Amino acid sequence: MVLKNLPCFTLAGVFMQNQKKPKGPTPPRKLMQIKVSEVMNKRPREVREETSIDGLLERMMGQVETCFPVVDKNGKLVGIVTESDLLQMFHTQLPGATIGGARLREVLKYSAKTVGDIMTKNPITVSPDMTIGEAMNLMISHKVRRLPVVERGKLVGLLSLRNIIELYRIIR
């Protein structure tokens, strides 16, 4: 006996009329073995250390991405700047009586004029040949959502958690 026009609910509880139940989750092995080069953004927007904070804000407001790899004139990765770096710059309090290492960095970010003043220097990176599983391990252990993709010191892409989620949606 075939029942038609009965409601179907997904695991998230979303009502779907006359649609099949989704297949089970994608085996993690399949997702984890895909190479970073197949998923990464191959043309990330980038900035230079000397880019002004106003210039950075303008560029950030004009796009979906919330981070920029920072490169030198030869395309070598020197840092990364994110919305979090801007938040720290906006929120930094004036210094107290004593200034330690971390506190000093906060004060310097407060008085920042360029991207080089607020960027994270020497960010965690991945190579295009690494697997998504390896990249995700780095994301988890370092608590980051984006990883610059570097080959021979030069920026060749950017891998974000969003890229991985989009991949999951496609292959499941």
Shape, per Cα inertia axes: globular
CATH architecture: Roll
Overall mean pLDDT stands at: 79
Strand content: 15-25%
Terminal-residue CA separation: 29 Å
Please report the total strand number as a whole number. Answer: 7
Helical segment count: 7
How many distinct domains?
A: 1
Biggest beta sheet summary: 3 strands, antiparallel
> What is the CATH superfamily label?
CBS-domain
State the CATH class: Alpha Beta
Low-confidence stretches: 1-22
CATH names the topology as: CBS-domain
Strand sequence of the main sheet, in spatial order?
3-4-5
* Helix percentage range: 25-40%
Order of helices and strands: EEHHEEHHHEHEEH
How large is the radius of gyration?
A: 21 Å
Nutshell version of this structure?
By secondary structure, the chain is of the alpha+beta class.
Structural write-up:
The chain has one domain (27-171): CBS-domain (Roll). The strands form three sheets. A three-stranded antiparallel β-sheet has the order 3-4-5. The chain has a two-stranded antiparallel sheet with strand order 1-2. Strand 1 and strand 2 (15-17) form a beta hairpin. The longest helix has 11 residues, at 132-142. The relative contact order is 0.20. It has helices at residues 28-32, 53-61, 83-91, 101-110, 115-118, 132-142, 161-171, and strands at residues 7-9, 15-17, 67-71, 77-82, 120-121, 146-151, 154-160. It contains seven helices and seven strands. The two termini are 29 Å apart. It is of the alpha+beta class.
